[in-house]
Each structure stands twice: as C-alpha cells, then as structure tokens.
C-alpha cells in the first residue's frame, strides 16, 4: 500500500525514511518479539489546503494534456489533412491552400498559383477529384498531387501536406520580344531559345495567359486561357497568336515601266523596296486589316502612287500600275501627232511629212506610198479622234513600249479619176513607241493593225480629239492609168512585175483578212477566176472566226513560164492569231498561176 508524507502529502518511497519532497523524517516501524502483534486501526489521512490545491491542479493538467495529445494526433492525421484540403478547395480559401500545399522542388505556392489551382479544381473535375474523403481512394484518384509526411507540428505530432507535381508551359511565339504573363504575374523561365520559351516549375492550374508586343510599327496583345495539368509533368505546349506578324511585300510591275525607286510610308517612315522590288520581314505589323499601305513608284517620267490596300496576311504581291500622268501625257502627244501626220502624209504620199516616226518606219511608208502611187490608189481623209488603253501599256525594255489604240478616221481610198466617198474608218492598232535617249523624244516605230476582233476587248482609258482637218489626195500624173493591179512595164521587166504583184498579193491578202475587206486584195486577182472565188470565201470565213494574220516573211523562189502562163513558187511564213489569243507561226510553199492581162498580170489559181 502506498504511503504519503504527513507534511506535504507527496508519495513516499518505502525504502526511504524521509520525504523526497519536503525532507520530513519518517518514523520507523517497531517490530514486536511477540508472536502476535495487535492490529492498529488506520486513521483517515488529512490534507492541507495547499496539498489539495496542488493535487487538483495536477489532475486537471493531466486531463488536459491527455486530451490535447489525443486531439493533436487526430488533427494532424492524413485523414483530417485531406478534409481540410478539400474544404479549402470548396471554400476557395487560397490562404489555406498555400499552407497545405507545396511543389516537389520545395518551393511554396504563390497566391497566384493557389488561385489558379483552386480554379482548376472548380472547373476541371477530371483533374482534381474530391468526391471522397477516404484516404486511399482520394490518393489513387488524384494524380496531380500526393500527400506526404511534413515534419512535426509543435514538435510533437506528425504533420502532413500535399505536394503538387510541377508544371511547365512551353510557348511558341510568332516573333521575338513578346512578353508573357500568367494571371498578370511573371514566372521563372526554364528555357528560352529563338521564338520558344518555357516557364516553370509552376503549380497546376488554369491560368490567363497574356502576351503582348510593343514595337516600332505596332502594339498588340492577346489573352487566352491555358490549362496546365499534366500528371507526368510533361511540358504543356501552346502557340501564342497575335494579330501581327512580319510582312513581306513584293511589287509586280504590270506595265514594265522602268522603276528607279519604290517605297511605302508607314508611321511617318519611308521604307524602300530593294532592287528585286521586295521588302523583306517588315514589322511586326497588325494583320487585322487596320493597317493600310500605299506603294509609291518613282520613274524617270514621274512618281506613281498605287492604290492603298490593307494588310491581312504576311505576304503580299502588289500589282502596281507604273504609268504616270506625265508618261501618259508624253505618249498621248506623240500618238496624236502621228495620227495627224498619218492623214497628211497618206494624202500627199510624202513620208517626209512625218516628224513623229523612226527612220525604219519612214522607209516602210516610203515603200507603201510608192506601191499605192503605182497602183493608182489614193487616200483622202481626216483624223477624228484616238482612243488609248493605257492600262495595257507594256514596256518590252527600257526604251520600247507598246500600247493599244483605236484611230477614228473619216476617209476613203479611191482612184485618181474618182471622187472620195468618205466613210468612218476605225483602225485597231498596237502602237510601238521608242524613246530616244539622245533626243529625249518618243517616236512611233510601228502601228500594227490587230484586226476587228480586238474591239471587243478594248477599253479606252483616254480619248484624244483629232483636228478633223480634211486632206484631199494629191494626185500626180503616173506612168499608168490602167485598172487596179495593172502596172505597165516593158517586156524585159515582166519577171520583176510578176514577182512584185505576187508578193503584193500575199501582203494584201493578210490585210484583207484582218480588216474583212476583200477589195484590198481583189485588185491582184483576175475576176471570174477560181482564185477569186476561193479567196473571197477565205477572207469572209477567217474574219467570221475572228482570226487575224501577220506576214513574217515572203519571197518568190522561182518563176517558170508554161503555155503562156507563169507558175510562181513562193516561200511564206505567216503568223496566225486566233480569237482566243493563241498564236501559231506556219511555213507555206505555194505555186501561183499568173496570167498576162493586156499589159498587166493577175493571179488566177493557187496550188501546193
């Protein structure tokens, strides 16, 4: 039976004769030599007031400590930690989440990360599961985090917390110098190379990614929601899209006018095209259509400002019309002068009238005028107007250009003994113009007739009024007043005459086809002959088909007399131009039958 000190009430050790608490000397038990020891009655122990207070406090403390220990073990247990974690997610208590979680690298969650993680749990139930509080089930269903022992709480109880698997966001940027924030905050950069940047480690969550760029030409930004939740911590890849990019511009010189310089202006700055008429990697610029640019072309004939266009892609081929007002004015002047000189020179058959043509073209007119005089053909007429399509102006090199034009005449081709029966005449021509760098003048080098089919596709961009000055044919006496195509010559010149008439026939047949005017060639063909009917049908048929032709070359290779007739062999190269625009060039060898008709010759048949 335990014994207590009579002075302080503390338990005493039986082997000691004093109290360890107060030092009170204890009485020794008297041993009796008698066989029988009388039984003494135990008296109730009396405690002092102080002893009672101490005993009560000790008992209370023991109860409190015992209860606290039991509560502490329960509070810090894994099961209760799960409950507190789930409640913090449900209550969106980011402060509690920060206390209960951390990353595997030992870093704590920022407030931004805690909010992003709570949003992930709220919106992506497949990423964070808290439909059970059973520790084993909770751990197996959630792979983005795990529970682990995390030291001692108050130095006594085992403490537990959640470790979130670190996440990495890999961003592919459209260009350099793009700044990125997640939920308005900058995060550590794990890798950074070229236009790729990796942020991490960060906590799993749903983040608002804001990307922005501020450069020389534009400011753009974008916002996107990024879900960062990979259970293996693999990188989450994302393409950043901004409504801006670098732009490449390339000029297509529609008209071929020699360009000295070309540029655009943007934000008050002039940006030049290179020698290949390209601007490489301009920008970045906004590509939402809000940015418009206007190319300006510099030529020796002045500047041309092209139409403005909006940027909506990173490559633009720009078709530019390089014909300046000054250039159109110069070309209009020389074409008008040519038209006026044309009627004057044709009426007088005097090529010296021309001041607007090249020497080569002057020689062609000289030959034509000689032919017309010899064949008793005379021109009377006036220039009414000229239409020009400068949209189709085309430079073939730095000094040669061609432009479609329509010449409107009131005129007639007639014999010397006939009055001019004038009517409207329209010549559809492709006018070739040459720029003489020495004299700084434009000269007409050719005016090739393209036939009636061209009128359907012709669109006049400029109309010039002619003087309407009428020129009557200047009739001069000639060595012959005979029928058309009859040229009086001596017998020794007969072969030369046959060759000339045959070649003239070849060229005038093409003119007849191009103008749908058989009369232009009928003068070389004997009336009533097989060739007359054949070629009349040919002119009508090819004209209906919309075909035109051009003589590339024609020559007489032999003349042989047979039974009072002549078989004339020719080699001809003819370009055929179909209504579709397709062209073919063919070589022909023909044998024409030519008969003498009085002092004249005429073609009567054709064979191969």
From TrEMBL:
Predominant cellular place of this UniProt entry's protein: membrane
Ranges where the TcaA 4th domain occurs: 244-320
The keyword Lipid biosynthesis is annotated on this UniProt entry: no
Transmembrane intervals: 53-72
Membrane topology: Single-pass membrane protein
One Pfam family linked to the record: TcaA_2nd
Domain TcaA protein NTF2-like: 495-604
Residue ranges occupied by any YvbJ-like NTF2-like domain in the UniProt entry: 333-447
Keywords for the protein's UniProt record, in alphabetical order: Cell membrane, Membrane, Transmembrane, Transmembrane helix
Subcellular location: Cell membrane
Domain of life: Bacteria
GO cellular component: plasma membrane
Start and end residues of each TcaA second domain: 78-163
PANTHER family membership: MEMBRANE-ASSOCIATED PROTEIN TCAA
Full protein name: Zinc-ribbon domain-containing protein
Lineage: Bacteria, Bacillati, Bacillota, Bacilli, Bacillales
């Amino acid at each position: 039976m335990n014994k207590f000190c009579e002075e302080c009430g503390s338990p005493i050790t039986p082997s000691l004769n004093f109290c360890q608490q107060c030092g009170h000397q204890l009485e020794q038990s008297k041993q009796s030599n008698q066989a029988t020891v009388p039984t003494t009655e135990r008296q109730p122990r009396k405690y002092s007031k102080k002893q009672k207070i101490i005993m009560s406090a000790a008992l209370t403390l023991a109860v409190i400590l015992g209860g606290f220990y039991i509560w502490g073990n329960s509070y810090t247990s894994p099961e209760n930690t799960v409950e507190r974690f789930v409640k913090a997610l449900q209550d969106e208590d980011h402060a509690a989440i920060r206390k209960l979680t951390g990353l595997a690298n030992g870093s704590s969650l920022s407030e931004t990360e805690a909010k992003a993680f709570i949003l992930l749990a709220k919106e992506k139930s497949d990423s964070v599961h808290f439909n059970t509080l059973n520790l084993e089930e909770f751990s197996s269903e959630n792979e983005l985090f795990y529970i682990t022992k995390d030291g001692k709480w108050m130095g006594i109880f085992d403490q537990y917390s959640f470790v979130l698997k670190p996440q990495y966001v890999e961003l592919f940027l459209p260009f350099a110098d793009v700044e990125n924030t997640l939920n308005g905050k900058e995060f550590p950069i794990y890798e950074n190379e070229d236009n790729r940047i990796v942020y991490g480690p960060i906590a799993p969550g749903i983040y608002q990614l804001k990307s922005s760029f501020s450069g020389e030409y534009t400011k753009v930004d974008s916002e996107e929601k990024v879900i960062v939740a990979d259970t293996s911590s693999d990188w989450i890849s994302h393409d950043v899209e901004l409504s801006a990019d670098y732009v490449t511009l390339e000029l297509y010189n529609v008209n071929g006018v020699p360009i000295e310089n070309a540029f655009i202006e943007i934000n008050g700055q002039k940006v030049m095209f290179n020698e290949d008429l390209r601007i490489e990697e301009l920008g970045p610029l906004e590509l939402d259509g809000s940015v418009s640019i206007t190319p300006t072309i510099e030529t020796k004939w002045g500047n041309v400002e092209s139409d403005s266009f909006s940027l909506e892609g990173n490559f633009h081929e720009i078709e530019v019309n390089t014909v300046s007002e000054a250039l159109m004015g110069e070309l209009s002047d020389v074409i008008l002068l040519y038209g006026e000189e044309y009627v004057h020179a044709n009426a007088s058959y005097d090529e010296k009238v021309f001041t607007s043509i090249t020497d080569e073209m002057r020689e062609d007119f000289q030959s034509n005028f000689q032919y017309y005089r010899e064949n008793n053909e005379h021109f009377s007429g006036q220039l009414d107007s000229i239409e020009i399509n400068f949209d189709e102006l085309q430079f073939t090199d730095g000094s040669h250009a061609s432009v479609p034009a329509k010449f409107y005449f009131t005129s007639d081709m007639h014999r010397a003994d006939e009055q001019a029966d004038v009517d409207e005449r329209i010549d559809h021509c492709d006018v070739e113009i040459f720029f003489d760098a020495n004299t700084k003048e434009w000269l007409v080098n050719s005016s090739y007739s393209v036939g009636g089919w061209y009128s359907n596709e012709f669109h006049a961009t400029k109309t010039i009024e002619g003087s309407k000055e009428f020129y009557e044919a200047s009739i001069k006496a000639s060595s012959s007043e005979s029928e058309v195509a009859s040229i009086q010559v001596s017998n020794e010149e007969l072969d030369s005459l046959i060759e000339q008439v045959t070649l003239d026939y070849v060229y005038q047949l093409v003119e007849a086809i191009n103008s749908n005017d058989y009369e232009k060639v009928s003068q070389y063909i004997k009336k009533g002959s097989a060739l007359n009917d054949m070629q009349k049908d040919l002119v009508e048929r090819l004209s209906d088909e919309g075909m035109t032709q051009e003589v590339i070359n024609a020559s007489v290779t032999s003349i042989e007399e047979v039974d009072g007739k002549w078989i004339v062999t020719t080699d001809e190269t003819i370009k055929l131009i179909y209504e579709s625009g397709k062209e073919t060039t063919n070589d022909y060898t023909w044998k024409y039958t030519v008969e003498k008709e009085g002092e004249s010759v005429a073609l009567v048949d054709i064979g191969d």
